[in-house]
Amino acid sequence: MYQALYRKYRPQTFDDVVGQGSVTQILRTQVVTGKLSHAYLFTGSRGTGKTTCSKILAKAVNCEHPVDGNPCNRCPACQAIDSGACMDVLEIDAASNNGVDNVRSLREDAIYAPAQVKKRVYIIDEVHMLSMSAFNALLKIIEEPPAHLMFILATTELHKVPATILSRCQRFAFRRIDPADVAARIHYVAYEEGIEISPEAANLLGRLADGALRDGLSLLDQCAAAADGRITPETVYATLGIAGARTAGELLSAVADRDANRALTLFTRQYAEGKDLGALTDELVSLCRDLLLLKTAPKTGASMLTGVCTDAELRALLDRFTAPELLRHTRLLQDTASGFNKSANRRVDVELCLLRMCDPALDLDAQAMNARLSRLETAVASGTVAIGAASGRVAEAEERETQTAKNKVQNAEAERSSEADTEQPVPPQSEELPVTFWADLVDAARKWRPSLGGYINTNDSNLVTPRLSGELLELVTATEMVRSIVDKEDVRDFMTQKASALLHRPVRVRFTVRSGRDGEDPMNRLISVGRDHPDLFHIKQ
Fold it and tell me: Is 366 in contact with 488 (CB distance < 8 Å)?
């Protein structure tokens, strides 16, 4: 009779267990040294080897000729335990034997010495299913069992096991098996069974197993029965009814283009072919997660990818999304998948989700607004969109404001020219000022008026520069705006008095604007740019 692959290739020694080296090494050492505990608790997700290691440990402690902590699998004790004929090694399913009466019966039988082997071993699978009264009945015998008795408890939900049980057991955590290790085991089993499978298909099955080797072998068994010859990724997609990475990438590409028609067409085709909607949303979530990791942590995120798509496919999609958009898409997909159990029509749920992904304007929440703003910021930074008006009326208003600003600048220039005509001309030669003159003048100005000291300080922005020509001390400002702020009558009087005292001779202070491009007023520059490039004030399509 045909036997399932995961049963046929169940590990028979600790060395055969895949992906749990830290656990198996400790158990082997305890068997070799004889320092065995009376109670063990194996925890972890499904298919990671808890029950398998329980049976191997039961054989190892009773084996007549152990080999480096492993059972020999040839002695009568090992063969009896493998065949299930040993009455002293019992495997109990706590899901169906969870009452206090079942535990009382176990306690009554446990006091008797083993008849066939050295130790009586009770393997209680899914121990978290026991009732609280059953746990209480089990406490005493687990705490102080007879010398010939050993308990091995296994559970997938550790938080449901009472602390009183946990404190009486040695706990071992079984980790999820790495997809690469699952794929390697699938390759080995396929070779032994004469099944031809491509490396891509084995890697795909390893990812779909989700850390459970038993699931991976079950999927291999199913695909081998459906395949006519070589197992390929397309065979896996067709057999298991999942959309596949290619379809997930095409759907996200349509979302990136905001093409709802193409996204719904792709989804309808997959739905008509009978693809599982839960698997489709899971693939989209995994793909969005991979893109988000590469977007936010390009160096460390590469080692945490699920492998749903190849690196080339991920890079092609990466620059088409912003991080807020990917975060929003992931949450939309997760919310849709979590509502499948209560939904009356899953197809409508997925279609609505795709529409919301393609058009963030359909949502008015903060997350949708953040996604839209992030895309706009990216477009502005890349030069695709220029900052400006989106309508003719706003453009006209900007033109009027620009003309008004231009008129103000022209009037200011005319006033400055008239003032310059009444002033004495600046001598062509400038004298060298004392080394500490300007610093002393700035300190005096700051003490007299703190705000003035901030404008004429030259440490950071070089807003004002002194220049002495005869009796004229010219304070040259970088822009017209700075000159309009500091060029006041009381300021000129104070600066004249202070400068004369520092130079030990009378001087006259005058504020002027630096000439050339460096001293050009920013408003003039803005007007010039706007005049030369009027398209910068409008959105480019």
Answer: no
